[in-house]
Design brief:
Length: 269
């Protein structure tokens, strides 16, 4: 791994805990103005101070995020179908030149293992890694986003391992209750978990806690943060689990304490 690649990755992972809390706000690229992201600038502004990295499309980055921020950016570079279409029919949408122009710390794309366009999306990942490595740009592969996939360790393990074999430097996938540690063991690059559909806050904290305990390198979480009634409190509670080894009860107590507090906008405009 060259210096540029290492430098970009080290900006994402907290030097003390070695883990990361990435904030995923890319959902609009196929879902449109989804709940919690109807006004992306407002959502992002209040959560950015607690995010180690922002996972976002170039459109939202350019229009809704101040260029004065110092938070590292992971750029979603794939897309194509809307939520009304065949989700696996994604292609690369954003060039490496654009990622460099936007000063991205990494690029991310989805692969659709077990779905209609499995082979094409996996080959695209290979091409993206080839190009990204010329510039020291980390690639995050996103797996298991398909509609009806059984998200068990066997399937997640297959998808994550394939992503790593093709050359992804990080993998984002879902958590599964049973044998998640085997998914991690079988994947030689760091795994971050997506949160999935909104669930009660304590359950989402439990999911983050279990994933970290079983070897995840962090979270790249969206809806369970920005769809919470108290998103700033929720992301801080998630941080406590990921970076400070809080138990679920301690983190939930923190959430309840923080949710009563006024959100202070600390982002440079
Ligand atoms: C969608 C994505 C999202 O970034 C990912 O699913 C994380 O968000 P959430 O925690 O809401 O699942 O890649 O394709």
């Amino acid at each position: 791994m060259g210096w540029g690649m290492k430098n970009r990755l080290s900006g994402i992972f907290n030097p003390k805990s070695g883990k990361t809390v990435m904030l995923a706000v890319d959902h609009g690229y196929f879902q449109g103005p989804t709940t919690g992201l109807k006004k992306p600038r407002e959502t992002i502004t209040q959560l950015l101070p607690y995010s180690d990295c922002l996972f976002v499309t170039r459109g939202i980055l350019r229009n809704c995020v101040s260029p004065a921020i110092s938070t590292p950016i992971f750029l979603r570079v794939s897309g194509g179908p809307s939520v009304l279409g065949e989700l696996s029919n994604e292609d690369l949408t954003t060039s490496m030149k654009e990622a460099l122009r936007l000063n991205a710390s990494g690029v991310g794309m989805s692969i659709f293992v077990g779905e209609k366009n499995e082979d094409r999306t996996i080959s695209s990942l290979g091409r993206l890694v080839n190009e990204a490595e010329e510039y020291g740009m980390p690639v995050l592969a996103i797996t298991a986003v398909g509609k009806e996939m059984a998200r068990d360790a066997r399937y997640l393990g297959l998808a994550c391992r394939i992503a790593a074999e093709i050359g992804a430097h990080m993998v984002k996938t879902y958590y599964c209750e049973e044998d998640f540690e085997k998914v991690v063991e079988g994947c030689p690059v760091p795994i971050v978990i997506a949160g999935g559909k909104k669930i009660p806050e304590k359950d989402a904290l439990q999911m983050a806690f279990s994933a970290i305990s079983k070897g995840a390198a962090g979270v790249d979480m969206g809806r369970n943060i920005f769809q919470s009634e108290h998103p700033a409190a929720m992301i801080q509670a998630i941080r406590a689990v990921v970076h400070e080894n809080y138990s679920v009860d301690e983190a939930f107590e923190l959430f309840n304490k923080l949710k009563g507090q006024k959100v202070v906008d600390r982002v440079v405009e």
